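Exam revision sheet. Question 4 asks you to relate a sequence to its structure. Input first:
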Amino acid sequence: MIVAGFGFRTSATVSSLADAYAKARGGAQLSASVFATAADKATTPVFQRFATDQQAAVTPVAADDLTAQLTITQSEPVKTARGTGSVAEAAALAAAGPQARLLAPRAVSDDGKATCALAEGSKP
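Answer key, structure tokens:
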């Protein structure tokens, strides 16, 4: 199972999320069936619309589950705000299950408002 984890600013648009997702996929034919993000962002209209457009299930990730993940990226502002180096990487790992692995570090949208990371795991 492939999970796409997202981190995004309040000002992010569907295009921001789509761009980060495309960059994370890197032209590969990978497709995520689950989109994960921080629980407080999972119900935002822009994230819900993007997930619906992509026919992906949304998994909200609790703050404690985000901070429990070891991420490749170590963004100091994100560490200060969220307690993890990358919300996108942490969300993908948490939602993919205990043996999950990142396929690559997070990708950043051209407008800088969204990040996406893909993780592979076995969590149903």
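Marking note for examiners. The longest helix spans residues 14-25.
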